[in-house]
Design brief:
Blueprint: H1 12-17, E1 44-48, H2 52-64, E2 69-73, H3 85-90, H4 105-108, E3 111-114, E4 117-123, E5 128-133, E6 136-141, E7 144-147, E8 151-153, E9 167-168, H5 173-183, E10 188-192, H6 196-205, E11 213-217, H7 230-242, E12 246-248, E13 255-258, E14 264-268, E15 274-276, E16 279-282, E17 286-288, E18 317-319, H8 329-343, E19 357-362, E20 365-371, E21 381-387, E22 390-397, E23 400-407, H9 413-422, H10 429-432, E24 443-444, E25 450-451
Parallel strand pairs: 1-2, 1-7, 2-3, 7-18, 9-16, 10-11, 10-16, 11-12
Antiparallel strand pairs: 4-5, 5-6, 8-17, 13-14, 14-15, 19-20, 20-23, 21-22, 22-23, 24-25
């Protein structure tokens, strides 16, 4: 046990600024592993998508292959963090303000960026793709292809929902701009879905001065049901309700009501309970954008299937990020680093697939959720700790931490994250889960020395 957790009691700041000696090989591949290429023999790398996975791949490939020809094809014409779109809605940031790289990133990386283009076909046999730009179809050949096309917002099959006007998801910058503009005139705004995206949308809207009536529809007994238990969720619910938000829990829309112009005018919650609505934000999940691989022979499930090297079942075709069915920024980045390294002739594998960690800070309440916070049966121990505004919850099974929530004081979350992630067994964990310290993870040798 001591070897597994030797280094976990570092602060989050230390972990983010210090490179550990045993850093995963997917981020420490030496450049000499990539064979030199002449200018005439430069490899053409094509990357579909310009989000975090695509951008990470561009940087990684350029570091490993100085003479590479890198071409990025994307629907977007801006690089931005989707996690920060709500700041555009609130007006706290501009499009440029949520760009996570320099504005001239592509130029600095000597990469060609084909913007506002939609990939229509991938042809693995002839190693080329077809894309449409400005109404014209073009072909592009590749030596290595990386698919980072992300995911699309899922719009459920509720009556009139997909046809109604003034209805927006919150997935792209265009959505955020549309919501912000329509919110200036809307009297009754409804957010359908109380997951992370829905709460982001609500957090952005509630900060707008003079905003209209805000309502939130949650299908479960609490908001953020996959990340928070009832108590942690209530801390946010109370804050939003103090801001005038009406929260409908355990409810689902049965029909979207529209006027003679096709604009949304209300949401039917069943039993003839109608919420007035002239602007609707739909945040009911996403689906991997795998339509572009139809007919290519590339294997998919919920997303494109990849192995530990980021490879698909087709030679020289890789995938990373949301298009593979993953859903968090750190894992998308790791997948892209690994795939790009292998594309450039290096050697790397995805060693860390942990994606069950969410950090949020709505209305000034910082919260971290790790692992599975809803036990499937009564064989699990569920323990809580409250100290003023600080709250912690732990789910334990056979001295192994399965899930953990920290709200308010989140300064010591790093060690608990590792306990969940590595499934480390700690003796008598249920009795002291909120009191763990360094002394729990070292012992005294026969000669009196301490060791982990």
């Amino acid at each position: 046990m001591f070897d597994k957790i030797k280094n976990i009691f570092k602060s989050d700041k230390e972990e983010s600024n210090v490179t550990p000696k045993n850093a995963p090989k997917e981020v420490t591949v030496p450049a000499h592993k990539v064979g030199p290429k002449s200018q005439d023999d430069a490899t053409t790398y094509v990357i579909i998508g310009a989000s975090i996975a695509g951008v990470t791949a561009v940087k990684t490939i350029r570091e490993l292959d100085k003479k590479a020809k890198i071409i990025v094809v994307s629907k977007d014409e801006n690089i931005y963090s989707r996690c920060m779109l709500h700041h555009v809605i609130s007006g706290h940031r501009t499009i440029e303000g949520i760009n996570f790289v320099d504005g001239d990133f592509m130029e600095k990386q000597n990469a060609t960026w084909i913007k506002k283009a939609t990939v229509k076909e991938i042809d693995p046999d002839n190693k080329k793709i077809k894309y449409e730009k400005d109404g014209k179809e073009e072909e592009l050949a590749y030596d290595k292809l990386l698919i980072t096309s992300g995911a699309n917002a899922f719009v459920p099959p509720v009556k009139n929902l997909r046809e109604a006007k003034n209805v927006y998801p919150l997935r792209n910058i265009e959505d955020a701009i549309g919501i912000k503009e329509q919110a200036k005139y809307a009297k009754n705004i409804v957010i359908m879905g109380a997951g992370l995206v829905g709460m982001d949308a609500l957090a952005g809207l509630v900060e707008i001065d003079g905003i209209g009536n805000l309502s939130l529809i949650a299908s479960e007994d609490r908001i953020l049901d996959k990340q928070l238990d009832v108590k942690a969720a209530k801390a946010y619910e109370d804050k939003f309700e103090q801001k005038g938000v009406k929260i409908y829990k355990n409810r689902m829309a049965s029909e979207v009501l529209i006027d003679e112009d096709g604009k949304v005018k209300g949401i039917n919650l069943g039993n003839d309970e109608i919420i007035d609505c002239d602007l609707l934000v739909v945040s009911t999940g996403v689906r991997s954008n795998i339509g572009l691989v139809e007919g290519s022979g590339i294997e998919t499930e919920k997303g494109i299937k990849i192995n530990e090297k980021g490879e698909t079942n087709k030679p020289d075709i890789y995938a990373a990020g949301d298009v593979t069915g993953t859903g968090i920024w750190p894992l998308a980045t790791k997948q892209a680093e690994v795939a790009a390294t292998n594309m450039a002739g290096g050697e790397a594998v995805i060693e860390d697939r942990f994606e069950f960690k969410n950090t949020m800070n709505f209305l000034g309440i910082p919260t971290v959720s790790v692992g599975f916070i809803t036990p499937p049966d009564d064989t699990y121990d569920v323990l809580t700790y409250t100290d003023g505004d600080n709250y912690k919850m732990a789910v334990i099974k056979d001295d192994v931490l399965i899930g953990f929530i920290a709200q308010g004081d989140i300064s010591y979350v790093g060690p608990y994250t590792q306990l969940v992630k590595e499934k480390i067994k700690v003796d008598n964990l249920a009795k002291r889960v909120f009191e763990l310290g360094y002394s729990d993870f070292f012992k005294i040798k026969e000669d009196g020395q301490f060791e982990w």
